[in-house]
Amino acid sequence: MQTKDCLTIYGEQIKSRLLIGSALYPSPDIMTQSIVASGAEIVTVSLRRQQSAAAGDDFWQLIKNTGLKILPNTAGCHSVKEAITLAKMCREVFATDWIKLELIGDDYNLQPDPFALLEATKILIDDGFKVLPYCTDDLVLCQRLNELGCEVLMPWGAPIGTGKGLLNSYNLKTIRERLPDTTLIVDAGLGLPSHACQALEMGYDAVLLNSAIAGAGCPITMSRAFKAAVEAGRFAYKAKAMPEKDVAAPSTPTMGMPFWHQEK
Amino acid sequence: MFYNIAVVGFGLAGRLAALGLSKQHQVTVFEADDEHTKNSAGKVAAAMLAPLAESVLCEADLALMGLDSMKRWPGIIAELESDVFFQQQGTLVIAHQQDKGDLQSFAQRIKPLAGYTAEHVNTQQITMLEPELAGRFNQGLFLPCEGQIDNQAFYKASFTQLNKRKVKFVFNQRVTISDNKINNRPFDYIIDCRGLGAKNTQGDKPLRGVRGEVARLYAPEVSLTRPVRLMHPRYPIYIAPKPNSEYVIGATEIESQDSGAATVRSTLELLSAAYTVHSGFAEARLLNIQTGLRPAFSDNRPEVSQVGNVISINGLYRHGYMLAPALVAQAVSQIQ
């Protein structure tokens, strides 16, 4: 049943429009408190580099204890094969068919590899996965991913961890306009709550971020700031912004205004 | 008072506790491993004493405890009556041009500690501090007050000294502590320094291991005189020069309990990053790459706690050498 203004991820209704990562916090305690403060209902988790499922269990247990939905990711994978193996391992460990598909094309700026991404997406969807691809803000790539069956797309705002915000808002707006029925989440590159707010204002359904909170001086407080910004952005989108104008239009008619106010 | 005291765990904290107590009391050390304690995090570590740099990650009170420990190390080493390398000549922090953002954000996050703060250094100053890095880096930070210790030498010398003091050792025995007894043997006090060996015995404070991989190189073509940290978006490393042209390159930090051999990825990251700092590492000999698990509580803060006559020191995480002397002193004072 459709509930009030929810984010839809593969048919599931999610109230919070903020998805949060679980890496790089000063401590697991601060991580869990930040996650709670963000109001997020979905936490992304990386299985990469844990060597085995059992080895990372102490840490994952902390995330599982939050009771939130887990979105495992394939962070750190460079090839289709690696990503698929990891996706399958994630499905077992976290008992979910959701996968945030991340395939790195360039090691220095961690830019996703669009070609490998399409290939891996097709294989994973055929295998029953619900793929949430992390992609660049390229319209044609987004269309192709959509055609393959991705109901959710996650174009970047800027390269991972840069905190630069929405570097190409034209591209992001174009994707929004051309794929009006697809759930769109800006993933990566956000640094400030205002960046998240802008994404939501422009009609993006949600944002996914990690470093902006984990790397803040006080992650828990920053988490609250992002929560508020995402809510503000969504309200603004729904309220439909006034049209921009080049000529000033006074909000209070000056005619009839007492002269002592005009002096100010 | 004279007490019969058991120290359980012969890692860094256990050694310091045994050293602190054996002058006055009868001490028996229990260790699950043999005398080489090859799995001890303190043995694998680079043994950096870096309260300013670590203040980026930890709370100010812990960094200040690091300064306190720093003052204690020379006295501890003097007690060993052996030549254990200890140095306090600061740390140099550098970044490649393209990663200067990481250097800036690191500089912003350093907490000034009791009058010490990070100093920005330019090409000339870097050259003066480390002549072999001349021309390679044009900006950096100098962290005065920081130092390091040769932990391999400390492990060896502490064992020798404790033997001289007639400390009793029980190796290769995993013990249970209950009712103030060890395997039903009573002691006046028990100092629990088991680290991850105490996992699942810490009540409601779960301990976890945080995997770290560290490379030890023999690099006669490199002469760095003090620890050097490289800021990098993905491979932040430190290079700690030890005696006899040995260098410790560390360390990865992975939320994993796996203590198995280092991975190729980690090895490549550590060694490539070191090579970008100094090309003389190309011909270095790779002496070993070891893996250790750092015992940590979920707040990443250490804890000294006492229940009955059992005093536990645990959760030193990545700050063993930086914090252990102060923490152990606190535990020892609970006895005296």
Structure description:
Chain A contains 10 helices and 12 strands. Chain A is α/β, with parallel strands linked by helices. Chain A has an 8-stranded parallel β-sheet. Chain A has a two-stranded antiparallel sheet with strand order 1-2. A two-stranded antiparallel ribbon of chain A has the order 7-8. Chain A is globular, with a radius of gyration of 20 Å. The mean pLDDT of chain A is 90. With 336 residues, chain B is α+β, with helices and mostly antiparallel strands. Chain B has 9 helices and 20 strands. The longest helix of chain B is centred in the first third of the chain and has 20 residues, at 60-79. Chain B is elongated. The model of chain B has no long low-confidence stretch (mean pLDDT 93). Chains A and B meet through helix 1 and helix 2 of A and strand 14 of B.
| Helical run tally of chain B | 9
Give the helix proportion of chain A (percent range).
25-40%
* Spatial gap, N to C terminus of chain A: 54 Å
Q: Greatest chain-chain interface?
A: A-B, 20 and 22 residues
Q: Describe the main β-sheet of chain A briefly.
A: 8 strands, parallel
Radius of gyration of chain B: 20 Å
Count of discrete alpha- or pi-helical segments spanning 4 or more residues of chain A: 10
Element-by-element helix/strand order of chain A: EEEHEHEHEEEHEHEHEHEHHH
Give the uncertain stretches of chain B in residue-range form: none
Low-confidence segments of chain A: none
Spatial order of strands in the largest sheet of chain B: 6-7-5-15-16-17-14-18
Largest sheet of chain B: 8 strands, mixed
What best-fitting shape of chain A do the alpha-carbon axes yield? Answer: globular
